[in-house]
Amino acid sequence: MLLQNKICFITGAGKGIGRATLERFVEEGAQLIYANDIEESSLDSYCSEHVQVVPLYFDVSDTAQVKQAFLKIKKESGRLDVLVNNAGMMQDALIGTISRSLMERLFAVNVFGTMELLQLASKLMMTQKSGSIINLSSVVGITGNPGQLVYSATKGAIISLTKTAAKELAPKGIRVNAIAPGMIDTDMMRSIGEKHLQTHLDHIPLGRLGEPREIADACVFLASNMSSYITGHIVSVDASVLV
């Protein structure tokens, strides 16, 4: 019951890492979890079985919808203890073939959406002088990766904004950390194709992809009081060799 009495908000909770995090937060006894996803009804069946989960369907890059979500949280709960900024998208393109629209869309979702949510969450958390914000980056934001100029740039931005926000919000009692997953077995990762997947697997000493639940466990740790003296850190959940 590591999250007992905590009000939480998870974005991109319909599948993959977001869904695994939602399930772990339920297991750890979170009082109430606002679960966001862009796909309408993607959380309905799960929420019908878990009354402490409230679905919120919107695009995190839509400023108006993001504000409405926080107004709902403030009106219904009056506080927010944990924000998991998980929603994101990946689209690869080689240098020379990257369109402006691709750059704008990935930054709108992965970076601007994260910043918007972080700002609004911190306003709620400031009133209670406590809170934990967890941003999802990626190992490619640290190491880079061919064909992922834009995606890696957005995940590198997450690392930078996490460190800055942590320094600015620490005096308010708010902790800000990021998780940088390695190769995790999600639909997004599988979309690169079996050939490319095997190339990556050859460089993972453990010989397997990570499981979404393993990232979710890290989210539980950073959301709980077990990490009360940790802020401004990038936690790599990755079994590959970072060289």
Automatic annotation (TrEMBL):
Which InterPro entries does this entry report, sorted A to Z?
A: KR_dom (IPR057326), NAD(P)-bd_dom_sf (IPR036291), Sc_DH/Rdtase_CS (IPR020904), SDR_fam (IPR002347)
Spell out the molecular function terms from Gene Ontology: oxidoreductase activity, acting on the CH-OH group of donors, NAD or NADP as acceptor; quinone binding
Q: Which GO terms describe its biological process?
A: bile acid metabolic process; fatty acid biosynthetic process
Annotated Ketoreductase domain residues: 6-182
Record's keyword annotation contains Transmembrane helix? no
Q: Which domain of life is it from?
A: Bacteria
Task: Reply yes or no: does the keyword Transmembrane apply.
Answer: no
Q: Which UniProt keywords apply?
A: Oxidoreductase
Per the record, the similarity remark reads: Belongs to the short-chain dehydrogenases/reductases (SDR) family.
* Entry protein name: 3-oxoacyl-[acyl-carrier-protein] reductase FabG
